[in-house]
Specification:
This protein is an alpha/beta fold. It has 10 helices and 13 strands.
Amino acid sequence: MKKYSQQQIEKFIKKIRRQKILVIGDIMLDQFIWGKVNRISPEAPVPVVQVTHESAYPGGAANVARNLADFGIHVAMSSVLGNDANGDKLLTLLKEARIASDGILAMDGYPTIVKTRIIARHQQVVRVDRESVQAIDGTIVKTLLEKIEHIIGDMDAVIIEDYGKGFITQSFVDNVIAVSRKNGKIVTVDPNPNNLIKWSGVTLIKPNRAEAYAAAGVPFDENEKTLHTVGEILLKKWDAENILITLGEDGLVLFHPPEAPFFTPTKAREVFDVSGAGDTVIAFFTAALAAGLTGAEAAQVANHAAGIVVGKLGTATLTPDEILKSFQQND
């Protein structure tokens, strides 16, 4: 694998930070309750968590946006949330994170999705989800598409992030891809295995290994030849220019014909929490590709970025200095 000089990596980072990215997808509020455990409850065989502090972050598709914004990239979001207290909190967090929310609509009768994680001794004890999966009204979709069409001209790329909460539908996707292509934008997708969308015409689709095998209809194994077969099947099935499969602790593999599949092993030194690692991969691959890096270069940038965030607790982000240091230490 090619070794890059510090000057080359710094050049990559500067290019990436100049990009403007639109993230479209299911948005939610990530809440964290942090504490310590000293005893088991007398009421049930469960730990008693003594709360020390709480925190909240933009979650779901907004975590992709937060990864980009914290790196210094201009990012805008398009989604729906509830016209409620949690929705107000989420909009405030987006503003604090420097994420443009012009493409977001607050809806009555649509509760904001909230995921609450209770963490003690650096481990997640339990997660509580508050959500109502429901399709978005056609009038709302029309308004969102108008907003997207107004925003997209200033963007360099579009990320569609499907968390399977009802926001991403075939009709909506078809319109987003059409307007993106009309404006000459890169379109990348993080699909949801339970939402059978046809992604024809996108630049890249990023499933994880289990999702990729399931979508290809191939029994799961860890054989490299089988993995290559899966990649070839998905390129045809999804009619995408590239397929990027995340392999967990094994790294990433990029299928980008006519070139041979490109594999890059994980750069993680320690793994504390894999929450949001896939968000980091799609965020940084897209930004790097938009910046003019090759597919192989973008895959390596994304892999280094993911290796950094899994070494942190919670849905974490990273800085330019951290990714520069990762390249220096690993390559």
